[in-house]
Design goal:
The chain is mainly alpha-helical and 73 residues long. It has one domain. The longest helix is centred in the middle third of the chain and has 15 residues.
């Protein structure tokens, strides 16, 4: 996500912090334990982009739409 945003606005990408949060849920791709919901994390980044650059927010949504168009979480 950070790499995609960096292509359009490196300054905004600097504020996205990469982190691993351990948890009991297993990633469906690598099987590692995780404690962060992809939908919620994507929602946070999308909201941040909406506030700062709505055009990049739309690019983000087209690439990382974890059902973000649906309200509620």
């Amino acid at each position: 996500m950070k790499l995609v945003i960096n292509q359009y606005n490196p300054k905004l990408a600097e504020n996205i912090i990469e982190t691993k949060i351990p948890g009991n849920t297993k990633c469906i791709f690598c099987g590692a334990g995780m404690g962060l919901c992809a939908h919620c994390f994507s929602r946070d980044i999308y909201d941040y982009l909406q506030e700062n650059d709505s055009e990049i927010a739309e690019v983000f949504l087209s690439r990382f739409d974890f059902d973000l168009r649906r309200s509620g979480c």
